[in-house]
Predict the structure.
Amino acid sequence: MAIFLSSLFGSASIGVYSLATDKMAIVPPQAPETKTQKIGEWLGVKVVRTTIGDSVLIGALACANSYGMILPHFVRKEEIEAIKSVSPASNFNIEILETRKTAFGNLILANDYGAVVDPRLKENELEVIEDALGVEVVPGEIAGLPYVGSLAIATNKGVLAHPLLAEEEQKLLTDVLKVRVDVGTVNCGIPYVATGLVGNTHGAIAGFITTGPELFIIGQTLDVVKENE
């Protein structure tokens, strides 16, 4: 279980362009085959190369755990089929939320134990998310902000969140996601942790400009260790 440094499209914002669970990962089809293979090896999962609604912003648009996935209304049929081709089980739930909101990767923070979501989401939307991901869904904020999915990363081992996480917010994350919660940054001080970090219980990948002190905190929180690419 290790943490690696990498990039996509020459950008350290690797979390904007990719998504990972304990069972699968998604990267854009434009990603080099060698990079795709490395991501699969580092995270110990099968990797599918696809877009979401023809967009490469996979980490921003989609949210998933081992049980299911939430996708925006403009996702294409062939993209869903590509995701299903590496889905971990026949009962993997793929739900499309027919709302004006589309950046579900930014609005939902989830692991296999629970989910904390943007408090502006409606009750019927929470029910769809709960059914798809198969976990308790609770509205909440991080650092007083609603877009929790961009402000933290959650695996089944830990949560790394925005440095201004309040005490009551930390308690909520701990209670709902049922793992250790700590604060940190990525990519030389970026507090929007999910933009520069993807991970699961097998490993993590941080943006290539993430510093040594940042990597130490990431490693401690997500229970991974630094290795060279």
